[in-house]
Specification:
With 119 residues, the protein is mainly β. The chain has no helices and eleven strands. The chain has strands at residues 3-7, 10-12, 18-25, 33-39, 46-51, 57-59, 67-72, 77-82, 91-101, 104-109, 113-117.
């Protein structure tokens, strides 16, 4: 089992920055792909960014150039640095850890942290 706890959300003005953190316990994250997802009211959860165990990174087009995903396997942490925030970034942000091992998929979620971008 992997337990994930997000932190760092809050209220920020447009153009501002936030850094989300995801702390993992129960297993070492080094073998897991890590991802950040978000869900706005009335919308489906969407993928924001992923980083594989090997360090390959992908972003959804709407955050490219503004958000940066990273991980620190030694600390069992993942991060999402969010700059130039826009009102449309408002959502609950979730951390995800995923690993495929043979025919078994291990998939874990945090409880989410609210990000509100508003003046």
């Amino acid at each position: 089992q992997v337990q994930l706890v997000e932190s760092g959300g809050g209220l920020v003005q447009p153009g501002g920055s936030l850094r989300l953190s995801c702390a993992a316990s129960g297993r070492f994250l080094s073998g897991y792909a890590m991802g950040w997802y978000r869900q706005a009211p009335g919308k489906q959860r969407e993928l924001v960014a992923t980083i594989t165990s090997g360090g390959s990174i992908n972003y959804v087009d709407s955050v490219k150039g503004r958000f940066t995903i990273s991980r620190d396997n030694a600390k069992n942490m993942a991060y999402l640095q969010m700059n130039s925030l826009k009102p449309e970034d408002t959502a609950v942000y979730y951390c995800n850890a995923r690993k495929q091992q043979a025919t078994t998929t291990y998939n874990y979620w945090g409880q989410g942290t609210q990000v509100t971008v508003s003046s």
